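Entry type: protein chain
Record version: 2
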Amino acid sequence: MLGCNIGTLFKVAVGGGSYQETLITHLQGVPPGYLITEEEIYRDLLLRKPGQGELTSPRREPDVPVIVTGQNCDDTMTGFHNAHYSNGTPFTILIPNLDRHFEHVEAYRVTNRTPRPGHASYASYVKYGQWDDSIGAGFFSGRYTATIVAAGAVAKRILLDHGIEVTGYVKEAAGVRLADMPIEKIRPKVAAYKEMRWKHDPVYHWLFGSGRYKPEMRMLQKMAVLSELEKEVPEMYKKMIHWDEEAIRKEYDIHPKLNCPDLATADAMYERILKITRGGDSSGGVVEVVATGIPAGMGEPVFNKLDGELGRMMSIGTIKAVEIGAGLAVKDMTGSQCNDQIAVKNGKVQFDSNNAGGITGGLTTGQDIVVRLAVKPTPTIAKPQHTIDKVSLENTDLAAVTRRDPTIVPRVWPVAEAFTAIILLDHYMQHVAFQAMAKK
């Protein structure tokens, strides 16, 4: 399968499928000297994983990462303290699939001849024929996005060391839209949401809080722990679904299941999503990502313009449009309204607005980068739909029988945040290299 890699200096390649043994993320370009742990990566992965209440599929995947290459196994010399630090070699992360039991496989098997409208199941069958990995939609399932989140966790860690921070959140869901807010107010709420999630995640505490799962363990030891975890997961997820939501609201002033930085708006989104779901349907929305600390002049002209590169987030399966800055709204502006006028204040360049989203001519201006992604409704719904038998090419009807997400929006924002970080790190590395080589 082609098309499963991205990047020039920070390269990401992914593999695996929804019901294969594991998902895999393979990174090249991770600098040496970084102590990156499974615990750190898991804190991002748990933001996107399913089985966390009414807004997501009931599939109970723990999404626990296993780092298998790219780190020193121990201190390399007497007096050196470099055990488990990155060593500059390819960095590989496994994410084993644990919740894949026969009854789930059978549920897909008996319906796989009838492709879901709006899903890739028909096109993938045409492309790959009888060999198509259609159990759980294979590589066309949203499950594969865990690989992007894992890669993004590494990218965000490196970017943060260079003063660049990437923040994603839900901007709109089921037609309810968050009013514009400054990133200075958004970021603390998103940070609070992330902290709340790992502090209330039973898998996190069972693995990392207890010390069962540690960086110094060998891969087979970690796999033994995951085998034990697989048996414990059903009871853990029951605890997760019965969070004390009122206590969370009081402590964090956030919605427990929806990362929208305004609680009143999040409540309105949540109620609207559930209303649509109770009618047997699904809903979409918009996620927004803001990156700060970006130097001016980053990007490459023509085919590698940074806004074009960010447009590659269309490759996230559920995304149907990507906007930079004002996006589609520019069609209704005049030039004087759209232009971000420039001035110098106290020796620094400043802009009156940011309709360009921090990018002009494919190069960064030094302003915040603002990206929005339009998320389509989940294709799998609890309403009858007409489809075909893709083998016999006969008309038939389809009703959803598989586990499903009422909306994918609450799980897409960490994917978008991660994907943005991957692209920005790759271009930041190119920018630093180019500037270092420029003749002084």
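Comment: The chain has a mean pLDDT of 90.
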